[in-house]
Amino acid sequence: MSLRLRLTLLVMVVTTAGFLASGVLLRWGLEASLLRRLDSQLERATDIALTLLGPDPEDGSSRFVPERGLPVLPQLLPGLVLLLVDESGTLLDAFGRPPAPRLLEELAQGKSSVYRIHTRPLADGLLLRAALPLEPVQESLTFLSRLLLWIIPLASLGTMVGAYFLLGRGLHPLDRLTRQAMTLAEQRLWSSSLLEPRSRDEVWRFVRAINSLLAALGEVIQSERRFTQDAAHALRTPLAILSGRIERALSQAPDPVKPELLEAQKSLRDLLDLVESLLHLARADAGILEKRPVSLDALAFEESERMRAAFIRLDWFLPEEPVVVSGDETALRAAIRALLENALHHGGGRASLRVYAQQQQAHLEIHDQGPGLEPEQIPHIFQRFYRGRRSAGSGLGLALVEAVVRWHGGQVMAGRSPEGGALLGFAIPLKTGS
């Protein structure tokens, strides 16, 4: 789940909770307001009812006297019920719309779930009770509840849509910076930096921190590259001199000593190959190669012809039409040579080389007939100094291939060959335009 969607859901949950809390508070406030209004009406009704009480002409007890204008009250307050009771809750007189007998008894006792009651003490232990039905209040609260049941889901949905849109716009700078960072990482452009936004906000501070990290990392990588290149250059001359001296020594040495000199010569050549690999690797990493139109199939044929005598069998399958790429000829030759040497060392002396064009990509594959690659070796096969199949070699050959291919904007490939061994190769873009 993307960050944008997670934040949208979080906003929706928070706002929905806010809407629900607001709805509960609104309903509670409306109920309290309506009840206060009802209590005020009941209090005014008891004030008026006090002036309308009089003695019963038969026994002199207190009662409501309609002739004094009491009928006006039910017109002013529909549903009003007035009760005159004693302290024990015995009903003495009632006026207004009479409820059911059971409700009338409850009102006389001063308790009811469907009426709001206001009680005023009178002289001689009598109580005057005014009651209004709660039905209008319940209707208003029910209407509000139904309205909220529609408003809250619609408002939550609208909030989700709006939040998704606004978060998309807000996260767009981060998305753009992520793509820039991925491009720099894929192309190994450690000396480059991310574009800083104009507004100096949290994103700006984040970009500044990333650029500072890139600058520090670039200095370390540049220092390592310079050291590798300087060391390779410094070693090349004395090794070449030493190679010449061993050649002269071989021509003059007696036969018993020659095997040791031949072994020393072989080790020296391996060391020279390592130095050359380091130089090519440093140049590819530093990006100091040059791009020119190069026929990849011609390079593959020439390099395989040079090494063909070392193989028991080496076949090649080349296209009829040239496969032209824009690249550095020297670096590509070194990459092809490294792949062939890997097949020679690990492929049992039998291999096949294929070059073809497909989907605007130039493909070069080498299939050997060795033990092949284990699944756990494939992710590491192009790493520096990784020697997963055997201990022979410097461990830099395939790393050189990866660096050259990456500089050309391509991808390396590794897997099992249909012939039973390993499949190693690469794909780089074909040359476009004239």
From TrEMBL:
Keywords: Kinase, Membrane, Phosphoprotein, Transferase, Transmembrane, Transmembrane helix, Two-component regulatory system. InterPro entries: HAMP_dom (IPR003660), HATPase_C_sf (IPR036890), HATPase_dom (IPR003594), His_kinase_dom (IPR005467), HisK_dim/P_dom (IPR003661), HisK_dim/P_sf (IPR036097), Sig_transdc_His_kin-like_C (IPR004358), TCS_sensor_his_kinase (IPR050428). PROSITE patterns: HAMP, HIS_KIN. It is found in: Membrane. The chain crosses the membrane at residues 7-30. Its main location: membrane. GO terms for molecular function: phosphorelay sensor kinase activity. This is histidine kinase. It comes from Meiothermus ruber (strain ATCC 35948 / DSM 1279 / VKM B-1258 / 21).
